Amino acid sequence: MPALAHIKITSFGFKYGKPSQANLLFDMRFIKNPYYLEQLRPLSGEEPAVAEFILAQSNARHFLSRFSEQLKEMLPGFLANGHDHETLVIAFGCTGGKHRSVCMAIECQKLVRAVLEELSLSSQVELQHRDLGRE
């Protein structure tokens, strides 16, 4: 099998369907939705105000902490043992793909890069927001 050469992190909105190529898919709808705050609704998860709102929630911080530990266990295996595709796709979904999934995908990209560096591993890391701007 070919070695894993690429890690793709994507955000998406469940209302537009799940990404068919996702190897790891995480539902971020357990985090309080910034959509319901009038001042945050027009912004995306790329904006500092939205990220601060999301990352201030203990369940979001706890998820990221646990996810970081999981990455330390999984990434060496994916990289060493190959994969049925040369790309590992990690997907984060929320209702519309604008707030929670975008913020958490950005945070995941940071975690993946930090874990790769910590473990002295190498892989190309790409970030995509599939449904951002679609609404």
Offer a quick outline of the entry.
This protein is an alpha/beta fold and 135 residues long. The chain contains three helices and four strands, in the order ββααβαβ.
Tell me what you see in this structure:
The chain is of the alpha/beta class and 135 residues long. The chain has one domain. It is 38% helix and 19% strand. It contains three helices and four strands, in the order E-E-H-H-E-H-E. Helix 2 crosses helix 3. The longest helix has 24 residues. It is globular, with a radius of gyration of 15 Å. The chain starts with 5 loop residues before the first strand and ends in a 6-residue tail after the last strand.
Low-confidence stretches: none
Counting helices, strands and paired strands, the structural category is alpha/beta
Count the E strands: 4
Q: Which bin fits the share of residues in helices?
A: 25-40%
Strand order of the largest sheet: 2-3-1-4
Oligomer: single chain
Overall mean confidence score, pLDDT: 91
**Structural domain tally:** 1
Number of helices: 3
Distance between the termini: 40 Å
Radius of gyration: 15 Å
> How are helices and strands ordered from N to C?
EEHHEHE
Looking at the structure, what is the overall shape?
Answer: globular
The biggest sheet amounts to: 4 strands, parallel
What is the beta-strand fraction?
A: 15-25%
